Amino acid sequence: MTLVSRRPPVQQVVTEAVELVVAPAAIARALQLYEQLQPHDTSVILQARKILTQHIFGMVDQGELDEKKLIVGGLAHLKAVERDQGPLLTVGDLKSELSRWSNETPVTFYSPLREQEFRFYRYRPSDSVLVLEINEFPETSPVVLPAP
Length: 148
What we know:
- The protein is built from 4 helices and 3 strands.
- It has helices spanning 9-37, 42-61, 67-85, 91-98, and strands at 109-111, 116-125, 130-136.
- A hairpin with a 4-residue loop joins strand 1 and strand 2 (116-125).
- Helix 1 (9-37) runs antiparallel to helix 2, helix 1 (9-37) crosses helix 3 (67-85) and helix 2 (42-61) packs across helix 3.
- The protein starts with 8 loop residues before the first helix and ends in a 12-residue tail after the last strand.
- The relative contact order is 0.09.
């Protein structure tokens, strides 16, 4: 059995060119920009590539052929995913950052929103996430935020 495309021949050639050349280039450029904005651990980049690939090829399937629009649409979708899931800090990100510091460097937890320090309490590993528990640092009082 031979599959026959229902697209007109010219549209099929354009779509194939977008799928084979433009979309992969848009994914690569979007990843490059994403990494330039803020360096990420390899695991985060791999996840971003997967998200961008699915979204950009979805845009192509819906008829978008412009590389710049694919890049912008992909980055906007990636930021929306980050916003919905919250900033993702992986163990790899944490290891990468901590590897720059000596073993004697103290670690401080601080909330700029509350202008308050926190103290590490304990860690609690589970099957899929590492939970770092912190307590309010007793020597600093919380700041009362003005009413909106």
